Structures
1.
Amino acid sequence: MFRHAAVRVHPVVLALLLSACSSASPSHVSPDRSGDPTRSETRKSLTIAALASYKGFGPQFVTTTGGGSRQLNEIHSVGLLTTDLEGSVIPRLASDLPTVSGGDVVLMPDGRMQTTFHLRRDVTWQDGAPFTADDIVFGWQVATDPQLDVRITPTLRQIDTVEALSSDAVRITWKSPYFHAISFSINEFWPLPRHLLGEAFTGDPEAFMRLPYWNTDYVHLGPFRLVDFGLGENLLFQRSDGYFLGRPKLDEIRIRIVPDSNVVYAALVAGAVDLVGEGVLATDVALQLRDEWAKSREGTVISKQGNLFFVHVQFNPDYQRIPELRENVAVRRALLQAVDRDALRESILPGVAGTEPTTLMTAGDPRARAAGTPFARYIYSPRAALEQLATVGWRRDPDGKLVNQRGEPITLPLRSGSSGNEPRIIAQDWREFGFQVEEEVVPGSLLFDRAYRVSFPGLEYSAQGNNEGILSRFDSRNCARPPRYQGAPDGCYENPQYDALVDKLSGTLEPEAQGQVLREIGEFLAEELPLMPMIYQVTFAAVRANVHALTDDFLGANDTGPGQESRNAHLWDRMD
C-alpha cells in the first residue's frame, strides 16, 4: 500500500519556475499613472498556480473541474448569482433573488415556469460600456446556437426563452419547474457583451469562434481585466477600477500554469507562488505542506469535503476495448468489490472523517439523510467479485491471472486525471486480484482537449463535483460526439430510465421531495453502476501568510455550484 513520501523537485525544474515567476514578483515599483509620472508606487501583485493550460474564456471552454482553473473564473468574469461565505446563493449581477412572494417566480398554466431577474444598474463592462439585460439574452443566444461549438449545460437545456423586459430586467422562461432556476453559476450561464460580439455573431460561425475576444482580447465584468494571455500559460490580469463592488485592493493577479503538483508545492515553499485553490495540490503533497507550515507559520493549508471520486466506464463502443465492461453490470460490480476502499481511504486520508464513498451527497447537504447511502451495499470481497465474474465466463488461470472465455488475459485500461496516488492504489488492487492494468495519466495540456477526454478506452478515474452535480456525467443528452465533442467527458452512458429520473429531480422544487428523488437516483446508480465510487476526497487550498485570500471564501464555494472560491477576488490583499 502506498504511503506519503517527502516531496522532491529537481532543482533545475524549480530554478526554471522561479525564473519564470520573476516578472510577477509579489510587489514592484512602477509608474503611478494617476498623477506625476516621476512619482512611483508599490504595486501589489499576486501569483496563483493552476495545473491546466487555458484555451480561452467563455462558455465553450468550461469543460472540466480538474486542474484548478475553473474555480478562478470569477477573478475576471461575473454571473447573475454567486454564494456567500456559508454557501448560500446571493445575487451578483442581479440586484436581488427572485421570489414567489415578490411575483418574480411564476408557475404558468401550461406547466412552464418564469423567473424575472432585476439587474444592478451600476455595472459596466471592463471597457466602460454599460451592462444591460440584452447582454444576458445575448449570452444565452450564443450558448444555444446549434452552429457554434459551445457545450449546452443542464441549466441551459431547461430554458425555453430569455427576454429583456427592460435594460435592467430579464425574464427566463423554463420548459418546466426547475430546481436550479435561481442557483446557477456563470459556468452554467455566461453573460456576453453584445456591443463587442453582436456584429460578428451574425456572420460566419467558425470565424466567430476564432475571434481574439475569446483569448487575447477578452473583456468581461470581473474585478480584474486580462492584459496578457501569455499563450494560456502565463496570464496577467490588472485591476478594473470601475468594478461595481469596489476598487480591488490588488493591482494585478498572475495565473501561472505549473502542470506538476510537486513543483507547485516547491514554488509555494519558495514564495514564487502565493496561493493555489481547489484541485491543484495532490493529497499527499497538501498534507506535507500543511504539516510544514504548521511549524514554520509561513502559510495556511485549508481543507473541506470535496468531490466524490469514482471509476466510470466507457459506454461508447467506438472507444471501449473490453465490451463486457459496458454490457454486463456483473463485471462492474466485481471491479468495485475487488478494491479495498477502506484501505484506500486510510492510506490517502488517514483518520479523516467524511471520506466514505457510500452516497452521492456531501455531509452538509440537508437532503443527504433522505438520499441515503445506496453504495454501502458494496464491501470489499474478492470472493464475491470472482462469483460475479464467473457469470460472464471470466476466471483465474492456474497462475492466478484472470482470463476471459477464450483463455486470454484481461487487461484493464485505466485513465486518470488525478495526480494523486488513488488510481495507482486502485490499479494495484486489481493487479493483485488477477487483472493486468494499463495506467494512463491525463497530462495537464490535454485536460481541456475534448476529443482526447471522451475517447478513453476502458475505465477512467475522475470526479464530477458532488451532490446532484454528479448526475450530468451520466445523462445521455450530455454524450459528447464528434465533430465538436460538445457535452461532458462522460463515456456516453445512455439509459432512458435514468434520464427520466434526472428530469424528475429537475422539476422537484421542495428540498424534502428532492431528497426522495435523489434516493431513487442513488438506488438506480448503485444497481447499474455506470460509476464505481471510490473515495470522497478532501480538497485543499494553500495561501502564504502574507496574503489575505481564499481563507474566508473556500468553504462557501462549490465547483458545481453558483459561487467559486475566487468570487471575492476584489477583497484579496497582501501585507508585504
Note: The longest strand covers residues 299-313.
2.
Amino acid sequence: MSNFTEVTSGLSFPEGPIAMPDGSVVLVEMFGPRLTRVLPDGTKETIAEIPGGPNGAALGPNGLFYVCNNGGCFMEAQLDGLTFPAHAGPDRWFGGRIQTVDPKTGKVTDLYTECNGVKLTAPNDLVFDEHGGFYFTDHGYSHDRSLVQTGILYAKNDGSMIKEVVFPAHEPNGIGLSPDGKKLYWAETWTGRVMQRDIVAPGEIAEVGIVDSSVCLYGFPGFQLLDSLAVDGGGNVCVATLVNGGISVISPEGELIDFYPTGDIMTTNICFGGKDLKTAYITLSGTGRLVKMEWKRPGLPLEFLNK
C-alpha cells in the first residue's frame, strides 16, 4: 500500500481532480452529480449541480471550468461496500456534452453537444494545449447488444470549432499531452492500452498505417482496466489502473517503471499540485475518497493553471 493521506471522504464517485493554486482541489462527483471544491481541511463546497454524469474537468484560459458530461450513461451500483458505474439504459442517458461552469456564479452552459451533425455520446476527459484548444475523449455508449464506436476530438474553447481527430478509439478514457506538446496520449479502458499519436499542428494528428505498432505506448498484461491519466514533468504517463487498484507509471519509451497501489480497485484519476508540483492527488472512487501523497517526480505544469 502506498503512503498517502486522506484529504476528504464521502464523495459520490469523484473524478477529474484539478489542483488549484490556492491549495484546494476541484473535482466532479459523477453520481452527485456536481462540480465540487475540496478545501485543504477536507471541507466540501458545491460549485455547481450538473445533471447527467460529469466525468472529467479542466480549467480553461478564460477562468471557466470545462466539464465532460457523459449524459448519464452510467448509473450508481453498490457491491461489497464499493461504488461502481453500471451502464444505464436509454431512458436515463440523454447524450453527452462538453459544458462550461462559471466558478463565480455556478452557471452551467452547454458548449458542444455534437460534431459535424453526429451527437457526442459520453465525453470522459479533456486536456488543453497551449493554443487554448482542447482534446477530449468520447468514451462511447453501450446498452444490451449495441455499442456506439467513438474517437478523440479537438475543439476550441469558445464553441466555434469541433472536429474528430482520431477514429476509431476503443472506449477511450484519460487523455494527456507530452511536455513538448507534440504527442497525444490516451487510455483505452477495456483493452488496457495506453495509446499515442504525433501532433503535427494544433488539432492535427499524424496519419498512421493500418498496422502500426507505434500507436500503442503500452499494453497491460492480464485483466487490468484503465481510467484517467496525467503526465509528469519527465513525460511519464501516470495512468489510473482499475481492478489492480493504483497508479501505473509508463515511460515515454513504453516501459512500466512504477506502480503505486491504493487499495481501491476503482482508482480513477490523478493530478499534481502543491510545491514544485510534487503532491499527487488521487481519486479513489470506489470508496468515495480524495487522497494525496508525495510524488518522487514533479508533475507536468498544465496550461492556464500552473504556468
Note: DSSP finds no helices and 31 strands in the chain.
